[in-house]
UniProtKB/TrEMBL annotation:
Keywords: Cell wall, Membrane, Secreted, Transmembrane, Transmembrane helix. It comes from the Eukaryota. This is Polygalacturonase. InterPro entries: GH28_Enzymes, Pectin_lyas_fold, Pectin_lyase_fold/virulence. The chain crosses the membrane at residues 20-41, 125-149. SUPFAM superfamilies: Pectin lyase-like (SSF51126).
Amino acid sequence: MVENSGVLGWFLLNPKTPPFASHKTLFAFLWVAALASLFVWQRNTISGFLVLGGVPMQPPPKLRPVVFCLTEFGGVGDGVTLNTEAFERGVRAISKLGNKGGGQLTVPPGRWLTAPFNLTSHMTLFLALDAVILAIQVGFLLFFFQISIQ
């Protein structure tokens, strides 16, 4: 006699009985399948819509009446260019709008290298998806400029 393994082989040998021996086994199998499909669905869902192939680019939300982009002030998100002056110019422009509801400085995707800078009130600093602010220490910056001047 040839033995078949697995559910299909068992079903071929015993065609009159169901592949699940009891209703408890069937219920456990369906419960595990439902949980697995829930986890797969959650991983592929954003805001209730199924997303296949990634997240679509959306414009940044407008949280303040006036919105500026860091690139408008000369910022470059390559991870090498120092963007402290661009951040400071953006903050300075927004500080003038305090009585009008303030402003939002949007940092687009990229790696933005900067030294420390001060923020102002009535300001929203919005980082887009995949935007990273890389901070360096002021002492390192002074050492760097001394080497490049000599």
